[in-house]
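Lab notebook page, bench 4
Experiment: in silico fold of construct C2
Operator: M.H.
Input chain length: 223 residues
Purpose: comparison with the prior construct
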Amino acid sequence: MIVVVDERELVTEGYTSLFGREGVATASFGPGEFSEWVETAAEDDLKAVSAFLLGQCDTPEKPARSIRDRSNAPVIALSEQNSLEDTLRLFEYGVDDVVRKPVHVREILARIAAISRRTQQQETNFTEVGPMRIYADGRDPEIDGEPLPLPRRERRILEYLAVNASRRVTKTQIFNAIYGIFDEEVEENVVESHISKLRKKLRTKLGFDPIESKRYLGYRLIT
């Protein structure tokens, strides 16, 4: 899930739509309500955030510093002016990257993946699990070098499991990461349906089920 912060509702709605087309959930805030949320949000809610996108704010240092106090997720600022002074100031506030608008959401996702790789000291934009190569930039996974086309929700779940391959993740954590913590129109149990379909496809290609599940403990990829 990507959190978008901008004082213009039209802008946040636009990014919600654009990221949604890429299968990425978002949560949108105005600057004031965002500061209150990030300071009081539960740890599990913050862990569901893959990145923060900061747009127009009167005092951008406030949301940037609030994020840094509670999360290590990438922070990307969107700049509408070509100002070196403003760019340097944003970096001082703690953002990881400053991008000049207009910019395609796929470029934003690529920048988020690049920052995450550096943070995790990884040199690749994929995770290899047995014969599977699972990308973090929206591409379909590969099995023995052959692409495995997946619906975007199933692909995002597989990506999330790959990023967290060293630990178990619960159904709630997967739901929050894929649908967003504020989506009340979708039932959490939809995750079980997506995972069931994903496991069937992977089992057909691999000859075994690479997703281990344990009641009350959650899911993890078998590495």
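Observations: The mean pLDDT is 87. The longest strand covers residues 75-79.
Next step: discuss at group meeting.
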